[in-house]
Amino acid sequence: SRIYRNMGKNGDSERLLRMALAKGKEDKDSVLIRLCFGDLVMQFVEMQNLVEARKLYNELQSILTPRWGTASFMGALSVLYASEGDFLQARKCIEKGWSRAVNRIDSVNLFLYSSEIEHEAGNEKKAYADLLEGAILQKLESHETLLQPIITVQRDYLSEKLNFQNYKLRIERYLRFLYVVLSTLLLAVTYLLLNR
After folding, report:
1. Are 91 and 117 in contact (CB under 8 A)?
2. Is the pTM higher than 0.70?
């Protein structure tokens, strides 16, 4: 379903999600049910099909605990409320999203969702501040992502250099040992030849 969604084939994505949802209900698999409902709601929000998104979300609320929902889901839900003009609920969703954010990407997305909501609400100053915060975090995330291969290459280079230095040291020790053995042998042979 997610592959189809990423390819822009929303009809196929929805069909598969509804099949999985039916199977989840049949098997009473609460995890599968939550995942399917969550993905369907987010998909309909993205498609601007707010009537269907609202219908599914209402059904979802009736079977889930209030604590459920990832930061990403809460952000998408905030857009649903904002599009209906319920900015108070939209902001509450963003607040819930903050409590469920687990990484910087969640934070970036929540700032961007919040910026969109504040823009819709006419609060341009707050929208700009949130957009700026999101952009700063996004820049940090991108910077760290770009630096990671460089750090890995440096680590690998230093590791290889250390291994090579250790190899050279072992060879030098081995050569010294051979030198001592050969020198001792040569001295012994010389001594034996002189004493004959």
Report:
1. yes
2. no
